[in-house]
Amino acid sequence: MQSGTSPASQSAGGRHSTPWKPRGGAALPSHNTLARIMEVSEKLSLLGLSEQKVKETLKNESLTAVLANIADQAGISAPVNKSVGNLLYHLATKLPRQFHSHLPLLVEYVSDGRLDQEAKLTAAIKFVQDHNKEINRAEFEKKCGVGVVVTQDEVESAVAQVIKKNKDSIVKQRYQFNTGPLMGQVRASLPWAESRKVKEEIDLQILTLLGPKREEDLVKPPKNKGEKKEKKADAAPSNTPAEQTEKRPLTMAEFLKTVNFHVPGENYKTDGYVITDKTHDLLKEHLKTTGGQVRTRFPPEPNGILHIGHAKAININFGYAAANNGVCFLRYDDTNPEKEEEKFFVGIRDMVEWLGYKPYKITHSSDYFSQLYEWAVLLVKKGLAYVCHQKPEELRGHDPPPSPWRDRPIHESLQLFEDMKNGKFDEGEATLRLKTILEEGKVDPVAYRIKYVPHHCTGDQWCIYPTYDYTHCLCDSLEHITHSLCTKEFQARRSSYYWLCNAVETYCPVQWEYGRLNMNYTVVSKRKIGKLISEGFVRDWDDPRLFTLSALRRRGFPPEAINNFCATLGLTGAQISIHPDALEACVRDILNLTAPRAMAVLEPLRAVITNYPGDSPTPVTVPNIPGNEEKGTHTVPFFKEIWIERSDFREKEEKGYRRLMPQQSVGLRHCGQVISVAEVVRTSSGEVDYLKVTCEPASDANKPKAFIHWVAKPFKCEVRLYEKLFRHECPEDPSVVPGGFLTDINSNSLTVLESLVDSSVRGAKAFDKFQFERTGFFSVDPDSTPDHLVFNRTVGLKEDKGKN
To answer: Per the record, what are the reactions this protein catalyses (predicted)?
Structure first.
């Protein structure tokens, strides 16, 4: 174990304890604490930090501890020169914690001037990461440029060669030429040349080549219209969201190609990774198994339906593997048999495949139950786990009482654990707990509990089942996962993840966290959705008002739109809450290019054309996708009896209204006709029953102010119009909805209409998608029959504020 760290001591997450930092809200610091603060402040000052920088640094416990340690190791008793101080500060911020055993070596070389520039120190840090066990000083010095002095003549010669190579571009662009790449080209031949000297020489030789700047050289070049500055993605979890191009958003795979996660096999270089004496040997075996392949996994619990938050996880895990020619496992985390059902196993796989991803392998945590049990026995034998008899209610909360059984003899825990396995205890009578502490402060998490419930895969073979905290890291190890990607709340379990793999001496993957996705105006909790269903507010898990993936599919959301939406979110570590409008915009972008057009009248008003010529319908050609001839056309009939939207007629004249009125004609889309009101026919109660109209071909003389959609010889259909299920953005927030989420239901979230649609959609199948002109995008619901189509409104069209 490096740095004198054992698995047990790593259980607190490797955090530094610095007694000199006063904590907010605490009592005034003692005299000893103040003295310690002053002592550390002086050390920081000797390293060359300004008074303001010292104050800022003291707020960072871990950095302060490292700098104080460096000052002690360097034996600093007087202020160091600025160059050495800057390098030591750079060392403190850039050397990962797991390589601090090499601090004495690096401090020595910086302090005596052998590592005299940042490039050499950066090379030295990389060297100790790549050669962690033993450092060969001769090789180290050669790789890090120790003793290498680059003369001014060498700089001048290297710069001259680079200038000559780029002369034509420099002369053409003059002082608008970007000299940054020239620095890189010189660095390639003279890696240990001082950057300042290289920059000065480049500027001098360009001045010699071009002469003094002219007036036009001082004018900034104009930026191309619409040009966007390209952002470089940082290492997760602080990657910036994907930029949208003018034509289309980045796909998840395209975005994830820009993410700087670790290279497989270089796990030990990541922040917080715990290195043991066996780490490098285990990594070598891992690379033999995988061939350096990227491996991820999506590990849902099969006790509910996937929702929009899972879509982000699916895209990140499958997308990162795809972006790096790797593979992604679909692993069911089936460790809670009492809540698992076959429909959830099937539903999860269906949704993963619907989003367009194919798992490399489909596995189950239960596939590894035997190995997990053997490792649990090993932990007991090593004194790192014990059988406890505290009741579940005693272990709840943030500060449960310590277990009186924590220090029981190993042989006793071994026997009791076997008794648990053999069914000699009732449920809740005994658990197996791990001797570790999570970052959140939870002490000794439970690894195994008793459940007398048959398992979906293993039947009644087991009556003890492992917990998530115990299972997921070890299953990741068994499947040789390279990147264990999970949401931010699991950061508190990262230390136990590394602790557990190292404790059983198996390969340890790297855990990376990203921010969880929350959607406004909905709930995604399995329990709360179950309540909505049981109370009759929604029909089932796939009710289109929900944000489960099956509900979004039923509503008509294309999987590409969901994937593109996830790509726009990026990989920030922050938890984000998104308005549904952002997702709907991605849906609209896809459907606008793919959904065939049709005409449907949601609230019909009949219009009889009194001067229609003849008794036969006139065929009218309509483009399937306007502007895209390759998508073809379809034909609809135009006849003497048509139906229009009731809202497209006003009996009384209304200023600014551009559609049909008794004194105003209107055009009919696609057929080139203009209709005018001849008579308003009423019912016995005085309501408008139907219209008698006349029609004539559109011309410059009768050019209408607007064109409306219509249907002739239509057939009936059912249309379901959906609105937000909840009235407030955060229905689960008691400060906003004190009565609970069920009191926030929008009573108008579903409107069902008996409507009319043109004949082009006849024969449509479930999930087929259309744009009903001037109305919105609609999808055929699975409730449809050949004689009765049901359409769900997916999203409306973009509002035209000028339309009336």
So the answer is: tRNA(Gln) + L-glutamine + ATP = L-glutaminyl-tRNA(Gln) + AMP + diphosphate
74 and 161 within one domain: no
Q: Report in angstroms the alpha-carbon separations of 630 from 201, 594, 617, 624.
A: 59, 12, 27, 9
Whether 254 is covered by a domain: the verdict is no
> How many structural domains comprise the chain?
3
Rounded CA-CA distance 203/196 in Å is 11
Domain-ending residue, one of 143, 160, 181: 143
Listed in sequence order, the DSSP H helices in 238-367 are 252-256, 279-290, 308-323, 342-354
Contact 671, 618 (CB under 8 A): yes
> Is residue 124 in a domain?
yes
Residue 302: is the preceding peptide bond cis (ω within 30°)?
no
In terms of domains, do 609 and 659 share one?
Answer: yes
Give residue 37's identity as a one-letter amino acid code: I
Nearest to 564 by CA among 794, 321, 241: 241
Please indicate, yes or no, whether residues 161 and 83 belong to a single structural domain of this protein.
no
Which amino acid appears at position 55 of this protein? K
Tell the burial category of 325 from Cβ atoms under 10 Å away from its Cβ (0-12, 13-18, 19+). Answer: exposed
- pLDDT reported for residue 323: 94
The greatest distance separating any two alpha carbons of the chain, rounded to the nearest whole angstrom, comes to 108
- Contact call for residues 414 and 381 (beta carbons, < 8 A): yes
**What tokens appear for 423 in the block?**
């069914």
Please classify residue 164 by burial: count the beta carbons closer than 10 Å to its beta carbon, then call 0-12 exposed, 13-18 middle and 19+ buried. Answer: exposed
Asked if 774 is an active-site residue, the reply is no
The three-point CA angle 778-780-785 to 5° equals 150
Q: Answer whether 131's CB lies under 8 Å from 142's CB.
A: no
Domain assignment of residue 158, given as a range: 152-215
DSSP 403: P
Give me the amino acid identity at 420: M
Verify that 104 and 156 share a domain, yes or no.
Answer: no
Element (H, E) at 331: strand 327-332
- Tell me which of 516, 659, 720, 769 is the catalytic residue: 516
Of 194, 266, 285, 301, the catalytic one is 301
**Its pTM surpasses 0.85:** no
Residues of the chain with pLDDT under 70: 1-31, 132, 222-250, 799-804
Q: Which residue has the tokens 């809450």?
A: 577
- 646 flagged as catalytic: no
By the 8 A CB rule, do 764 and 789 touch?
yes
Q: Distance from first CA to last CA of the chain, Å, rounded?
A: 74
Summarised one tens digit per residue, pLDDT across range 202-227 is 999 999 998 998 888 888 776 655 44
pLDDT in tens, 178-201: 999 999 999 899 999 988 899 999
Question: Is residue 512 within 8 Å of residue 498, measured between CB atoms?
Answer: no
The active-site residue out of 526, 528, 539, 774 is 526
526 is catalytic: yes
Domain CATH code at residue 692: 2.40.240.10
Residues 432-473 have pLDDT tens digits of 999 998 877 789 999 999 999 999 999 999 999 999 999 999
Amino acid at position 40, single letter: V
Q: Name the helix (H) or strand (E) containing 457.
A: none
Q: 189 and 81 in one domain?
A: no
**Residue 505 included in any domain:** no
Q: What angle do CA 319, 323, 324 make, to 5 degrees?
A: 125
Element (H, E) at 103: helix 103-111
* Residue 373 contacts residue 419 (beta carbons within 8 Å): no
What are the residues whose beta carbons fall under 8 Å from the beta carbon of 468, sequence distance 6 or more?
A: 333, 335
